[in-house]
Amino acid sequence: MSSNKSNFVHSNLKKQLIKKYASHEKDTGSPKVQIALMTARIKYITSHLQKHKKDHASRRGLLQIVGARRRMIKFLEGIEGEEAVKKFLNELENMSLNLQE
Questions:
Q1: Which of 3, 7, 11, 73 yields a CA-CA distance of 20 to 30 A from 101?
Q2: pTM listed for this prediction
Q3: Could you give the domains of the chain?
Q4: Based on the number of CB atoms within 10 Å of its own CB, is 43 exposed (0-12), middle (13-18) or buried (19 or more)?
Q5: What's the pLDDT tens digit per position in 60-98?
Q6: What percent of the chain has pLDDT over 70?
């Protein structure tokens, strides 16, 4: 692991995701922002696990994040409706993330 990483994702990518999905300037915790950040983490950990197949601790963490994301999506569906959430998730899936290990 390189020491210049702040966490799972480069800080500028995290800032871009927050800026894109925030509902106001200081919003970092809304459901859309959280789902976008979890999606980035899932993609990053998935690419890590493709290289390190025996890293079971990361695999367990991935499953926890996937479950938390699924619950957050269900919560968001109750607030905004199923169609709006499907549109949001399609946008997230088409998003290209520059995740480098």
A1: 73
A2: 0.82
A3: 11-18+28-94 (1.10.287.10)
A4: middle
A5: 999 999 999 999 999 999 999 999 999 999 988 887 655
A6: 85
